[in-house]
Design a protein that fits this description.
mainly alpha; Serine Threonine Protein Phosphatase 5, Tetratricopeptide repeat; two-stranded antiparallel ribbon; 4 strands; 3% strand
């Protein structure tokens, strides 16, 4: 988890306190370590974590049994899943770091990568300060009142569901309220006709839109007691698919790609308790495969973004994988598609376009980049106040790139 969190920090800020960090009062002004050095160190730590788990298991004489969520709120002492999480984070580091980072060990343990969603749930429930944080921020308060009502999907993202770019009623209908008539907007567009969010959020598709009875639905905002995703199985499979194309691991990229799409459907159709209603097209592996072939592939039969066989070059394959990851992690773990866009340029947009179907850039953007987007976020102002000697200077939101970015 420390490796996961430090990767999030590097991906947001590039150089961050690391070697001298987390020392409390011993060092209140830590120096900054380069992102490339941190990436390499994190991979080493993940290898060490797997080795520690294996060495502990080899000497223990007491069987490790399933323990309560209050002790291990992620995997309930399933140590194989912890090792799979370590492998998956390391794979993400290696893909993103690419040739800019020298990794000591480029192999992975035999435990493989995550095949199920890594969901944290310390006992989320509809009580004050105990709700799933996403539900609390974007859906409804514990009292049943609306949470933030200012958030709507972009016109661009809806294009991957409503037929503008791709057709995907299966995910669109559980991701968005009243799909395909979902209210949408483009950043920076100001008009009295702007859509308003009824009953909390357009990101909650449940038929019960308000009050304390809301919150037992499939989709993105499932309910106050749903687990919070650290890494989804869909992300794991798309990472593996990209790694297979790039030669980092062996395996069939097409199969991993299609399994990632099915894992995305699986996550979205889960209820807060992890079950999938039996009356859906996704309640079994066979049903999901049938839907993928007969509906999603068929509805997009000319697109290599859906039908992997049509991606005839490695670059088209990478585009398809990253685009599908963008769809799968839409409002689930949105920082990862943002990182991927800055690294690969996918999903593809039209630079400088005023058409909201062709870009997600703000209409009022002041960016000097061709895509009219920021390149990063700035360091918190508190760093300038409390650690002014060490915080990197002259950081520009448009031109100061994360080390792995284009």
């Amino acid at each position: 988890m420390r490796a996961h969190d430090f990767e999030l920090l590097v991906d947001a800020y590039n150089d961050v306190p690391y070697v001298d960090a987390l020392q409390g009062l011993t060092n209140l002004t830590p120096t900054y370590t380069s992102g490339t050095t941190i990436y390499a160190s994190l991979a080493d730590q993940l290898d060490s974590a797997i080795a520690l788990i294996n060495s502990t298991a080899a000497v223990t004489t007491v069987p490790i049994t399933k323990i309560s969520s209050s002790i291990d709120v992620l995997f309930h002492a399933d140590m194989k899943k912890w090792k799979q999480l370590a492998n998956t984070i390391k794979l993400r580091l290696m893909i993103r770091g690419g040739s800019k980072v020298t990794f000591k060990n480029t192999s992975f343990s035999s435990d493989g990568f995550l095949t199920s969603d890594a969901l944290v749930n310390p006992g989320f429930t509809r009580d004050n300060n105990r709700q799933n944080p996403s539900w609390n921020s974007w859906g409804f308060a514990y009292t049943g009142g609306d949470a933030n009502k200012a958030w709507v999907p972009t016109i661009f993202i809806l294009g991957y569901y409503d037929g503008t770019i791709l057709s995907d009623d299966g995910r669109g209908s559980v991701a968005f309220y009243q799909f395909p008539a979902t209210g949408a907007n483009q950043l920076g567009y100001e008009s009295v006709d702007n859509p308003k969010c009824p009953s909390g959020s357009f990101w909650y598709s449940g038929s019960d839109r308000g009050g304390t009875s809301a919150g037992n639905s499939p989709g993105i905002l499932k309910g106050p007691d749903a687990g919070f995703p650290i890494i989804t199985a869909a992300e794991s499979y798309f990472l593996q698919a990209e790694a297979a194309v790039r030669g980092i691991i062996t395996g069939g990229a097409k199969n991993l790609f299609n399994t990632g799409i099915m894992a995305s459907y699986n996550y979205l159709y889960q209820l807060p308790d992890g079950s999938i209603p039996a009356d859906t097209s996704f309640s079994s592996v066979d049903k999901k495969m049938a839907y993928l072939d007969s509906t999603y592939h068929a509805d997009n039969d000319g697109s290599y973004l859906v039908n992997f066989d049509l991606a005839t070059t490695p670059e088209q394959q990478i585009e398809a994988i990253i685009t599908q990851k963008y769809i799968a992690l839409n409002f689930v773990n949105s920082q990862e598609p943002w990182n991927d866009y800055r690294r690969t340029g996918y999903p593809k947009i039209t630079n400088g376009s005023s058409d909201p179907n062709l870009t997600f850039a703000s209409t009022q953007s002041l960016s000097t980049r061709a895509d009219k987007l920021p390149a990063r976020v700035l360091y918190p102002s508190s760093e300038g106040s409390y650690n002014p000697r060490n915080v990197p200077k002259s950081i520009n939101v448009y031109s100061s790139l994360i080390f792995w970015a284009k």
